[in-house]
Amino acid sequence: MLKKILKSYDFSLIAVMIVLSIFGLVMVYSASMAFAVQRYHVAPDHFFQKQKMFLIVAAGIFAFFAGFPYKIMKSTKMLVPMVILSLLGLGGIFVFGKVAGNAQSWYEIGGISIQPSEFAKLAVIIYLSAVYAKKQNYINEFNRGVVPPLIYLILISGLILLQPDFGTAGLILLIAVSIILSSGMNGKNIFKLIAMGGIAGGIISFFLQEKIFSEVRMSRFTVLEDPFRDVLNEGFHLSNSLLAIGSGGITGLGLGKGVQKLGYLPESHTDFIIAVIAEELGLIGVAFVIICLGFIVLRGIHIGLKCKDPFGSLLALGISSMIGIQSIVNLAGVSGVIPLTGVPLPFVSYGGSSLIQLAVAAGILVNVSMFANYEQNYKTKKAESPPATLAREPIRARR
C-alpha cells in the first residue's frame, strides 16, 4: 500500500516547486547583496542566509503537509481553532504589531518579522472550501448555504483593511471569489453576492475614504500615466523597475551584474525581484519563472477538476487561484500595468511568512493530488474488476 501511495504523488509538480524555490534563493542573494550592506550595514549574504533558513524550515513543513491527510482539516476540531487563531493574530497586530511602509502588518519576534495576513489567506481557503463542501446539498439556499461562511471572510478582510493593507485584502477577496464560483452555486446567488459586494464596497469606501483615497495611495494610480515624470518621488519605484526590465533584453546582463539593485531599485529582493531577474537574466529568466508558475497553477486546476471529493477539489482550486492571482498582481504591478500593491512573487521573493505559507499550501495541494491519483488508479480499478466467482463461471459452463 505504501508503494502505491508513493506512486500516486505528483513528482513533476514537486520538482517544479523545488526548482523555482532554489532559483528564488539564488536571485534573493543576487538582489539583496548591495541592499544588505547599504541599508542595514550587514554582510552581503545576510538575506540569503535568512532565506536559506526559511527554505529549510519550509521544506520540512511541505513534507509534513504532503503526507498529512487533507480531509482531516475539514473537521470542526481543526476549523474552529484555525478560525480563532487567524482572527486573534490579525486583531493582535494593532496592539503588538510594528509599523512599516505606512502599514501595521507585522509582528517582530526575535529579529524575524511574521505577517499574519499571509496565513489568513490560507485560512480563508481552507475554511470556505470545507464549509461550502459540507453545504453541497443546499448550496443554492442563499440564507442557509451561501451567506454564513462569508461572515468569516468579511471579518478577515476588515481586519486587514484596517492595517491598512489593501493589496492583501483585495487578494483574499479574489481568492474567495474563485472558490465561490467553483462551489456549484447558481447564477442567481452569485448575482446577489455581486450586488452585496458592491454595496459593501461603497460603505467601506465612505467610512475609510481618508485611507483609501489618500494622496499617497492615489499617486499609485496617477504615476502609471508617466512614471518618469517625477522620477525622484512618486515615480521612483516604477521608473527604476522599468529601467531594470528594459535593460535586460533577451539574455540579460549576467547573473549578479545588475545595476538597478545598487541603491536605485527599492525592495529589490522582495516585491521587485522579477525586475532584477529581467535585468540580469533577461526575457529568458522571466519566461522561466512564468512557465514554472504557470505549470504549478494549471496543474493545481487540473487536480481540482480531477478530484471527486468536493473539499479537495475546492482546496486545490483555491490554492491554485491564490498562486496565480498573486503572481499576476506582482508581475502587473512591477511592469506598470496596475498600481503597485506590495504583493510578493510566489516561491521567488524574499520573505519567511510568504514562503512558509506557500509550503503549507503546496503540501496540501500535493496531498490532494496524491489522494485523487490513488483513488483513480487503484480504488477505481479494484471496483471495476469482476469478482473471482464470476470469472470462473465460463469454466463451469464448459464443464
TrEMBL record:
Membrane topology reported for the UniProt record: Multi-pass membrane protein
Keyword vocabulary terms for this entry: Cell shape, Glycosyltransferase, Membrane, Peptidoglycan synthesis, Transferase, Transmembrane, Transmembrane helix
Transmembrane segments: 12-33, 53-72, 79-100, 112-133, 145-162, 168-185, 190-208, 272-298, 310-334, 354-374
Compartments, record wording: Membrane
Organism from which the protein derives: Neobacillus notoginsengisoli
Protein name according to UniProt: Probable peptidoglycan glycosyltransferase FtsW
EC number: 2.4.99.28
Family, as annotated: Belongs to the SEDS family. FtsW subfamily.
GO cellular component, one term: cell division site
Alphabetical list of PROSITE patterns matching this protein: FTSW_RODA_SPOVE
Catalytic activity: [GlcNAc-(1->4)-Mur2Ac(oyl-L-Ala-gamma-D-Glu-L-Lys-D-Ala-D-Ala)](n)-di-trans,octa-cis-undecaprenyl diphosphate + beta-D-GlcNAc-(1->4)-Mur2Ac(oyl-L-Ala-gamma-D-Glu-L-Lys-D-Ala-D-Ala)-di-trans,octa-cis-undecaprenyl diphosphate = [GlcNAc-(1->4)-Mur2Ac(oyl-L-Ala-gamma-D-Glu-L-Lys-D-Ala-D-Ala)](n+1)-di-trans,octa-cis-undecaprenyl diphosphate + di-trans,octa-cis-undecaprenyl diphosphate + H(+)
One GO BP annotation of this record: cell division
UniProt keyword Ribonucleoprotein present: no
